[in-house]
Write a structure and sequence with these properties.
Largest sheet: none
Number of helices: 7
Oligomer: single chain
Radius of gyration: 18 Å
Order of helices and strands: HHHHHHH
Number of strands: 0
């Protein structure tokens, strides 16, 4: 079995995905198994079911830039909707670091540091994102997320903007 390109997958999200797929009417033995695990789940115990479910449903695991865009796209989409902006930005920031400061998502790394600097230093300005202040950083992050989604929309199966 080949492990997915992105190994920072939160397998607990895979369990939620399996439940959603069943609710949408998909059927597969491994999908049912995957949905039955309790959280928190062990990566090495679950990943086998994730890959087998993907195969059984006729889907393909993404790799390379496609995997990075897809993985980051989930969090960017949440930000663009204004949902847990800071938490989702931190997820992308952490992912960017783990991918050796991946250029496709590097702006989110900078935005994270801009927000962090604005929060923890007595400063109206930051060195990471021009024009970002305490008053507008969340709005900037949301707008940059929308721009990123628009720029990368051809990589997603359906329109997400």
């Amino acid at each position: 079995m080949t492990l997915p390109y992105i190994q920072q997958i939160d397998v607990n999200e895979s369990i939620d995905w399996a439940i959603e797929m069943i609710e949408l009417g998909y059927e597969s033995l491994t999908l049912y198994m995957l949905s039955s695990f309790s959280k928190p789940a062990n990566y090495f115990e679950i990943i086998k079911y994730v890959t087998e479910t993907v195969d059984e449903l006729g889907l393909t695991l993404k790799d390379g830039e496609e995997a990075i865009l897809s993985y980051a796209g989930y969090y960017v989409y949440q930000i663009a909707k204004g949902h847990k902006v800071r938490e989702n930005l931190t997820e992308i920031y952490t992912f960017c670091q783990s991918r050796n400061y991946e250029g496709l998502i590097y702006d989110f790394h900078l935005l994270h540091w801009a927000w962090d600097q604005l929060d923890y230093e007595d400063s109206k300005f930051n060195h990471y994102w021009s024009g970002a202040t305490r008053a507008n950083i969340e709005t900037i992050v949301i707008e940059e997320s929308k721009k990123w989604l628009k720029k990368n929309e051809m990589h997603f199966a359906q329109s997400i903007t």
